[in-house]
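Sorry to interrupt, but I need a hand with the structure work. Please put the record directly below this note.
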Amino acid sequence: MRFPITVLLLAATLTSAPAWSAWTLDNTRSRLTFVSIKNNDVAEIHRFEQLSGHVADDGRATVTIALDSLETAIPIRNERMRDLLFDTAQHKEATLTAQIDRAAIDKMAVGEVGELAGEGTLVLRGQAQPLTLRLQVAKVTPQLVVVASKEPLIVNAAPFGLNGAIEQLREIAGLSSIGHAVPVTFVLTFVAP
C-alpha cells in the first residue's frame, strides 16, 4: 500500500485514536540512531536514549530529541559531542515537526503495513531545515502504531552550522577526518490509552 502524505515521523500515530492528543511516543520501545564516519572508513553507531513526542488536537506532530541523552559508548566522546557539536548548554533539544493529514492513516487495518512519504522540519541548534522522509508504518493494535525509516535519512552538518564544531572534534581527537553527513535511522512506537 502506498500513499503520499505531508507528514514527519508521527504520520501513522493517529489510526483509530479517540483523540489526537492521546497519542504519545513510547520512549522504551523507540530508537533513533546515526552513524558517524571518521578517518575515511571507520563507521561508529550512536543513539539518543531520550525521545518524546505527541500529536496535538490540531494535528501538529512533534518529536523531541534530548541531546544530552546521546550515547556513543565512549564517555569522553559523549561529553565532547554534547559540549562541542550539539552545545547542549544552550540547545537542550532537537525537534522534528509536521502537520498531520490523518485520513489515509485511519484507513489502515490492524496488522497492515504501509509506506508513507513526507516532508517535515528539523530544528537543531536553532537552525531549521526541511527533511524528506520515506517511512514504513505498521498498525499493531488499535492503540499501538510503529513508524520506522524505510531508508536512512541523510542529515548534513552545514545547514545547521556544525562544520566548525566537527573540525574542533577532529582536532581534539587527532583524526584525519570526520564526515559532515550522517545517515539517521529510527523506529518509533506510539500508543494511545
Notes: Residues 75-85 form the longest helix (11 residues).
